[in-house]
Give the backbone structure.
Amino acid sequence: MTTDSKQANAPETVRKNQRSDLDFFLNLTDCRGNDVGWPEHDFVLKFYTANPANAHTASCIGGKCTNCFNDNGRIHVMIDKPRMGVGRLNVEVLSMLPNSIYPDGTQDLYEPQPLNIMLVPGKGDCGTTAEVEATLPYIKGEPFTWEDFTPEQIAELQRPATDAAERVNGFMETASGAEAQRVTDENARIEAERGRVVAENRRQSDETARIEAEKLRQKAESDRQEQEVLRVDAEKERAEEFEGWQQQLDDKADRAELSDVLSRDAEQEIEQAEPNLLVEALRKTPQALTDPERGQVLDNLGHPEFKAFDMAWETMGGTVIESGVTYEVNDATGTYADAVKAMSYYTERPRMDLDKLCFAKTLKLLPPIITPNAGKISLANAFQSTYGIKKIVFKSTLPGGKIYVGNAFATFNSSAIEEVIGELDVSEAQSLYSSFVWSSYMREIRLYHITANVDFRYAKNISLATLQYAVANAANTSAITITVHPDTYAKLTDETNTEWYQVLLDAADKNITFATV
């Protein structure tokens, strides 16, 4: 049979899902094309894809068959819970031909070859029993005989056989048991490796939880220190105010000087002696204003000390909830002190010195960031420890509204940011991997024109819209990988979850692979 005719008669390739159980007929032929059917000798079939270490074995030794059976004179193979991975299925056929010239009484012939079954990550063909073909390295019915060897070769072959004659019977009896034990040991090894992988995944998950707990602890400690500073400042102000009251009391007339006044009748005499005495006496006793009283005082004063600040706050995009008390920007609410701290960043340079935000742990309000009219901004380390900020708004004055990013290494590492508003053009960013988005809080971020690997491994709540945007607007010219959290990867690879699974298919069309850790 010519090569062309063999290719013409080759069975059609069958596609099967990599995790589905398999069963198929393995049709064996010898070197002349004769149908072997069910072999009369012992055999071992080793099935694998890319890595032979993940192989599944079927065998029939000494009449005991494992993972296969005689189906009307044909070999019917079953593979339960395959772990061989994606790729073309291969088989290595070990034929154990009876031959007395060998010490163990068998001639072992190996023949590795590909089969017409392809294991794929997605949907396979209809679930029918496939048929595959394999060729054996011998001619049916024509084993080697003594006449095929020279006397010298026979003598050389007989020497170890004579020395081991007493052990031959034992070898014959234990060969089948030894192979069965080897298969059992290999299955046990595979199960142990599976357990190790599960334990490692659990360890990584626990480590991630520990890192998140440490972040929360650090944030709580930072908040506590900030509150302690505010408490100390308030205590100092109270002490200074008390010292002023004490001085005012000392400046008042003593009891002897008022003796003539105190001897008169009641309030009228007191008023005549000193009209403001009662008011001054009340003022000498510290009294905290109630909220309505404080609001009335501010209304009476017209908030003159806050008007300029309030105007500046509204100009840069914030909202004044209560003048001198509560301020809001980017869906975040804070005190007047928080607003002053945020304004100090903004007024120093309207387009923001982003490097100064690297360790701004106590910052709770962040005005919109207006990018320059030309050039790129660097986001390197910009927000990695800003635990008080949950939302960032970028605004661009350029046509199209894109924010052009240069360096973005370790940008959102350990931050508490959940949402980034604005389209970030990262086509020239030096790195979007490593610790770019190692924040577990990130949900929404728009990355435009990705050209390199992207790391979302810790962003367990990353949204479908974020991944759809990244894939739809990718600009890579070679293969890249987007690493996601295991929960996200499970949704992407679930064929029944149509919206998420479509992202996986769209990514493959753009030479983008999703992976997890």
User: Anything to note?
Assistant: Residues 1-8, 253-267 have pLDDT under 50 and may be disordered. The CA atoms of residues 373 and 397 lie 6 Å apart.
